[in-house]
Specification:
It is a single chain. The chain has about 90 residues and is α+β, with helices and mostly antiparallel strands. Helices cover about 55% and strands about 20% of the residues. The protein contains three helices and four strands. The strands form two sheets. It has a two-stranded antiparallel sheet. The protein has a two-stranded antiparallel sheet with strand order 3-4.
Length: about 90
């Protein structure tokens, strides 16, 4: 899906799959910033590649880190019947 965004005062179009746009909306909402601000931050931080690729990598990294941090906060504990549960 192609959308237009303003980055650094210039209008540009970005092609992303809907799942990545949804991820961007979730991230921007969680940070309390607009999509345009978030895209601008990603654009300013990217080292190489095109903006669409940088956004995909950003979203992937964000949710991977979130999953990793949830996994580290849980401990595996054996129950009396031999099952392993997370607490």
């Amino acid at each position: 899906m192609k959308r237009s965004v303003v980055v650094g005062g210039h209008k540009t179009s970005v092609s992303l799959e809907e799942a990545f746009w949804s991820g961007m909306k979730e991230i921007s909402g969680g940070r309390g910033v607009t999509l345009a601000v978030l895209v601008g931050e990603i654009d300013a931080d990217r080292q190489q590649g095109n903006l669409s690729s940088a956004i995909r990598l950003f979203v992937l990294d964000h949710f991977k880190r979130a999953a990793d941090s949830r996994g580290q906060s849980k401990e595996a504990v054996s129950s009396n019947d031999g099952r392993v549960v997370l607490s």
